[in-house]
Amino acid sequence: MSPKAPLTQSVENLLNPAYCALLIEAATREHAKETGRSMPFALAFLILPLCLPSSFRDALPKSKSTVFHAWLNANGHLRAELPAFTTAYAPYTRKALRYGLQCGALKLEEDALRTRPKTPTLNASTDTAEALAKATFLGRWLGTAGTTQSVFMMGGIRP
Questions:
Q1: What is each CA distance from 28 to 1, 3, 88, 116, in whole angstroms?
Q2: Residue ranges of the domains in the chain?
Q3: Rounded distance, CA 88 to CA 39, Å?
Q4: pLDDT at site 15
Q5: Which of 55, 57, 121, 131 is the most interior residue, by most CB within 10 Å?
């Protein structure tokens, strides 16, 4: 998905609030496991643009030992696109957050997100399983990337 291109029906289907909430929930759970803290609310806005478009998903490192800012520097073309993709995915992230909060998958505590105790089990397609795996990785990775402000600043994103 190009941040400026109209969305096809298949892309719209991938961006349904329940599916996107599940991705954010997976990232939130892994962030908490990694850090022992709830995931900052603002980081939820990076999950969809980093794990749904194949250009970002395929370029993510295999290990959280890769430092976030080093990955951004090594992938300058993605760093340049990240602000536009974050803006383009923001409405879907907001819908997913609302859905996740309404159904109890996510809980908001001050300015951070928590998850329900247990993740639902899914019989997922290959694409869904890959996106879930990337979302869980992002939760762990962003937990070690520094403060929310520094992550946004490194990515050139304005809250």
A1: 24, 24, 21, 10
A2: 17-154
A3: 22
A4: 87
A5: 131
